Amino acid sequence: MTRSTPLPRACAASAGVNFALVKYWGKRDAALNLPAVGSISLTLAGPGTRTTVAFDAALDADHFTLDGVAQADAGVVGVLDAVRAAAGVDLRARVESQNTVATAAGLASSASGMAALGLAAWGAAGLPVEAPATQPALVEIVRRGSGSAPRSLLGGLVELRVDDASVHPLAAADAWPLAIVVARVGRGPKKVKSRPGMTHTAETSPYYAPWIEAHPADLAAARAAIAARDLPALGAVMERSTLRMHACMWAADPPLRYLQGRTLDLMDAVEGLRDAGVGAWYTMDAGPHVKVLCAADDAPRIAAALAQVPGLAAVDVCHPGPGARAEVLP
Ligand code: PMV
Question: Which one-letter DSSP state was computed for residue 175?
Fold first, then answer.
C-alpha cells in the first residue's frame, strides 16, 4: 500500500538517555519484547540521540548512518518496517543518527536511540508526533527495538508498567532538583548485550524467580518515595534494585558479571560519601559504569570525590531532561 498524501520531507527527533532506578531484567514475551517486571527511570537532559528520518522514493534500500558511519542494523530496519506498516508507507528511508552518549557500553544509548528513531520515523511517515508516550502503537514499536526505550519518550521520573507496558510520568524533569553523576569505567562495548543476557539469566539463574517475586515491592517503595520527594528512601530502593538484579545475573550458569573492580571501588566511594553525610546512591546497568543519584546541589562535590577513584574514563554530571520531541522539517 502506498500513501496517497505526500510525505513530509524529513523529521528530526531527539531523546535523552534514561537510567532505571528500579530495574527491569527479563522478558515476559521475547517475541513482543515485553518486560517481565515494571521499571522506574529518570530521563536525562544532554546525553542522548538525535535522529533524522526521510522516506525517499529514490532509494531502493534503507540507509543508516550513526555518527556519520554507515551501518547495517537489523534493529533499525525493524523499526522502519513497523512504522511503514502502521502508516501504509512503502518507501525506503535515509536515517542519520548522532549519539552524545557512548554507544553500546551500558550507558543506555539503545534507549535514546530507539526512542529518537521511532519518533522520527513516525513523524516522517506523516503520523502525529505530539505526546508520543500516549500513542500505544508508537510505544510498542519503540519497545520492540529496546525494552527500556519507551521510558525515554517521557521526561523526568517515569514508570513503565508491567501489565500493558505503557509509560507514565511520575514527576516532571523540573519538579525535583536531582542529578545523576555518571562515572564511566572504560570505553569498550559491553561483552553480553542485554537481550541474550536476560534470556540466559531467566533460563539458568535460581535467583530469577525470587527477583521477579520481590520486584513489585521495590516499585511500590520507589513510587512512594517519589510522591513524598524522599531522596534517601528513593536512593535506598534504587541500590537494593540494582544489587538484586546483579545478584540474579551472578547466580546464572555460567555467571553473567558486568561489574568490574573499579565498579566496586566507586560503590565504596559512594558509601564513604554517605557515611560522611552526603546523600549519594549508586546504580549499575548492563555494564561496569556507576550512576550516582543525588540532589542537584550536591552533584559537583560528589563528582569531584568520584574523580579521585583511579582508572576512570570520565565523570559527568547530568540533570533530568524532557521526553523525546520531534520536529517535521520543511
Ligand atoms: O533496554 P534493554 O532491553 O537493553 O534493557 C535494559 C536493562 C537495564 O538497563 C539493565 C535495566 C533497565 O531497566 O534499564
Answer: S
